[in-house]
Amino acid sequence: xxxxxxxxxxxxxxxxxxxxxxxxxxxxxxxxxxxxxxxxxxxxxxxxxxxxxxxxxxxxxxxxxxxxxxxxxxxxxxxxxxxxxxxxxxxxxxxxxxxxxxxxxxxxxxxxxxxxxxxxxxxxxxxxxxxxxxxxxxxxxxxxxxxxxxxxxxxxxxxxxxxxxxxxxxxxxxxxxxxxxxxxxxxxxxxxxxxxxxxxxxxxxxxxxxxxxxxxxxxxxxxxxxxxxxxxxxxxxxxxxxxxxxxxxxxxxxxxxxxxxxxxxxxxxxxxxxxxxxxxxxxxxxxxxxxxxxxxxxxxxxxxxxxxxxxxxxxxxxxxxxxxxxxxxxxxxxxxxxxxxxxxxxxxxxxxxxxxxxxxxxxxxxxxxxxxxxxxxxxxxxxxxxxxxxxxxxxxxxxxxxxxxxxxxxxxxxxxxxxxxxxxxxxxxxxxxxxxxxxxxxxxxxxxxxxxxxxxxxxxxxxxxxxxxxxxxxxxxxxxxxxxxxxxxxxxxxxxxxxxxxxxxxxxxxxxxxxxxxxxxxxxxxxxxxxxxx
Length: 534
Description:
The chain has 534 residues and is mainly β. It contains 1 helix and 43 strands. Strands 9-11-14-17-20-23-26-29-27-24-21-18-15-12 form a 14-stranded parallel beta barrel. The protein has a 13-stranded mixed β-sheet with strand order 5-6-8-10-13-16-19-22-25-28-30-32-34, with no helix packed on it. A 5-stranded antiparallel β-sheet has the order 42-39-38-41-43, with no helix packed on it. The longest helix has 8 residues, at 10-17.
């Protein structure tokens, strides 16, 4: 392994993204690896809580990965029964039938197709192997068509303008703990980059797997997998590129459960769209989104990790269960469950009460946009949750067994904009540590989907307009435009300038529902009702 470590900070990631557009060694841009002295975030009584701005973890990716001398390339032409090295430099490549084995460090340009073959990388532990896919179609009837068995680092580079496809078997002859189980499989650090495209069909199990670290620096990558789509063990990083993932299991994940500061996932740029049979984007330790566009179109739980941090980007989540879940890294981890409501918890609103355990789990939103459409809890933390910036919109559950906001500990709101709508039975509101005020509206009768809800200050100014996507019984809203202790009038109907979410609008033709006082929270209390504990 390398003798240095590159610690990812937001600044370092920004530099790394600049590498994503390079096409080959002759025109590659370069940047230097950047170190950050930042340390992990706040520490609770039981364990460390990591936030988006202070992720501390190392990665194998550096500027050398996407820079090489074209004259040093070894060209390999793939053909059923006739694969051959077509350049004068042939060291490190062996062809045996339809199996091409690369055994030495270097840069290898592959083109052509194998209907039933395999690319195998079996290099030394200190070797960096760079493989350029330049119009490659690989299939295999008994296992993985692309397997990295050994190297220091494997780089798969997608040549500009090229389309490449990897398709594995429906069953694998080779079995065992370290046997390949994905169409693109690596036992070592893996980087995927380049402006070309790659389609991965994981018919047996997973699509793309690294048993070490995985960096997706750029490219247009489409994955269709029977189980997990894209999986790194120590970490999974998306710097840039466009990723379309369809998975029977989890969409994109990092799953190291044993090593400290491992099992983390970072999205800092590009676009990711996930349709998953299980969780959409998942990390055992920390899941951080600092930029880019993330769309979880279908999932059981949308974003899940012990610590979920959103500091930038545009995130949209649709889930059959929880939209965002800070828990023990498993879909089966204990949810916050039923409680007696925020007004019954010591210290006022902001937690579920009822004796629920407050674990070392966090949700931290400090920037970007996070839009959730969930059938279970919308934003759920089995520990604490903090919103200090950005915009959070929750279209939560319609049943009273779940809530738009569900926090075992305290929900602290110090900035940003929050609109959380859903059922009223388990409504959670900002806690006493919050420095930004808000209002809680519990309607006397349900509000139909598509109905604008307006919050109006005493001067008649519409502070906020929100359009529901489901039938709702409650709404919690907080923004800098809400003043503590001020009385606001709530209207439904009228006009809105968008069909869903936070927007602008007017109360022309709207129906007055009653009034609420900023900073006074209670459960199942309609507009115009009494106060409640702050």
